[in-house]
Amino acid sequence: MVMVGCGKKEEPVAAAPAPVVAKAIVIGLDDNFPPMGFRDDRNELVGFDIDLAKEAGKRLGVEVTFKPIDWSAKESELNGKRIDVLWNGLTITEERKANILFTKPYLENRQIVVVAESSGITSKAQLKGKVVGVQDGSSAVDAVQKDEATAKSLKELKKFGDNVTALMDLSAGRLDALVVDEIVGRYYTAKKPRDYRVLEDNFGTEDYGVGTRKDDTELAAKLDKALDDMKADGTAAKISTQWFGKDIVKK
Q: Is residue 10 over pLDDT 90?
């Protein structure tokens, strides 16, 4: 007599679906933010971050497209899935970490104070009672507000849609000073050294990172690796030298 086991036949376990790798990513940016991302004389998007992002896309094997957005609404654009990545001189802050997953820092930046060359302002203390400009939605807003003593002493913290307009108001005397990312501010002031002056005082040092949605951990990890590889093989240094005249990439 043959004994037949009565154990329950096990059903084959279905393999977990492989993660879907995006074939394209949409990068949100402020297209008036030189030298990180802006439009040239032919109205084409160019810049340091543009070149870095294109190179990262090649290494990830994905198509990269760029979408200009209202920078003050960047988190809504990202989490509303109208864009996939924020890559445009995006400062890493604790507040932003609540809604954005950042890569490791790739650039260091300061918030500088720009005044007209003819201005008598030589320090932050002399901003008391003055009208100071910032780009709405930028880290300059947070940087000034964190310096409570200075912030409370201002006549007005005036917010602009972009730094170009703010600099025009500074030149026209409608603004006493502008707080701006050093990389951007130096780019503009170098073009008109007789019009602007940068103060020794600043509103602190910060880091730039690439931002994804909090649950896009795979994409963030791949961007991190691409940036690490670009630093290691000299590609990032080459791109930096093209835009800044030297390698300023944070290792």
A: no
User: If DSSP codes are grouped into helix, strand and coil, which group holds residue 116?
Assistant: strand
Separation CA 250–CA 89 (nearest Å): 13
Any alpha helices (H) in 119-181, and if so which ranges? 139-146, 148-153, 163-172
Q: In the numeric block, which tokens belong to residue 2?
A: 């043959």
Q: How far apart are CA 61 and CA 227, in angstroms?
A: 14
For residues 142 and 95, the answer to whether their CB atoms sit within 8 Å is yes
The tokens describing 196, both together, are 């602007």
Top pLDDT among 246 and 141 is at 141
**Alpha helix locations (H) across 62-110?**
74-79, 94-97
Provide the 10 A C-beta neighbour count for residue 168.
12
Report d(CA 61, CA 64) in Å as an integer: 9
What pLDDT digit, counting tens, does each position of 84-107 carry? 999 999 999 999 999 999 999 999
Q: Are strands 32-33 and 37-39 parallel, antiparallel or unpaired?
A: antiparallel
Kindly report, residue by residue over 197-216, the tens digit of the pLDDT: 999 999 999 999 999 999 99
Question: How far, in whole angstroms, is CA 193 from its chain's centroid?
Answer: 25
